[in-house]
Amino acid sequence: MTGIFRPFILGLGGTPRPGSSTERALQVALDAARAAGAETTLLGGEALKLPIYDPAVIDLPGPAAHLVALVRRCDGLIVASPGYHGSMSGMIKNALDYIEALRDEPTPYLEGRAVGCIVCAHGWQATGTTLIAMRSVVHALRGWPTPFGAAINSAQPLFDAAGGCTDAAVRAQLALVGRQVVEFAHMRRASAEASP
């Protein structure tokens, strides 16, 4: 092994509203990933205002091409979505649809990468169905959903003015998601290096 492996973890999520609870939850998970030794980047709601994915478009618009380049480079992802009407938001699903651009890559789609899933919803009902939908999409993209997915009820205030999570149990859940993605990236790297 040459040098210390520092996995690159991409955070993808939020809402068009700056400082949304979903984006703040994603940041807490990314902070935990960084504390576990990862390099991290967050593509929040503003960066995900992409044109509707069209498989006929070969030359991706700049922001979509940037998203695809980061996914291509990453060793793992953390995806955070609000629960809208029982599923993930259209904005997050649209961003994930752009991963289709990686179908013909040597490592297609999300193959070999762990994906942590976070859902924030105003009430419990949408958290479960949205988490199931997200995990199904990750499977379809050949990713590995982490064993733990965070379902956050944002009906109660959970974040302070600086974006810090004020609920210890929620903070622990989000940190677990971040750590599991990093741990899987290390296991994957060790397995690849041990292969003949």
Description:
Helix 1 crosses helix 5. The model has no long low-confidence stretch (mean pLDDT about 95). By secondary structure, this protein is an alpha/beta fold. The longest helix is centred in the C-terminal third of the chain and has 27 residues, at about 170-195. It is about 40% helix and about 20% strand. Strands 1, 2, 3, 4, 5, 6 and 7 form a seven-stranded mixed beta sheet that branches. The relative contact order is 0.19. The protein contains five helices and seven strands. The chain has one domain (about 10-195): Flavodoxin domain (Rossmann fold), CATH 3.40.50.
Percent helix, as a range, is: 25-40%
Helices and strands, in N-to-C order? EHEHEEHEHEEH
CATH class placement: Alpha Beta
Q: Spans with pLDDT under 50 lasting ≥5 residues? A: none
Distance N to C terminus: 14 Å
Quote the CATH topology.
Rossmann fold
The overall average pLDDT, rounded, is 94
User: What is the 3D shape?
Assistant: globular
CATH structural architecture: 3-Layer(aba) Sandwich
What's the domain count?
1
**Residue share in β-strands:** 15-25%
- The chain-level structural class is alpha/beta
Number of helices: 5
- How many beta-strand segments? 7
Sheet with the most strands, sense and barrel status: 7 strands, mixed
Any idea what the CATH superfamily is called? Flavodoxin domain
Give me the Rg, rounded: 16 Å
Give short descriptive properties of this protein.
196 residues; alpha/beta; 7-stranded mixed β-sheet; globular
Structure summarized in a few sentences:
Helices cover 40% and strands 18% of the residues. It is an alpha/beta fold. The chain is globular.
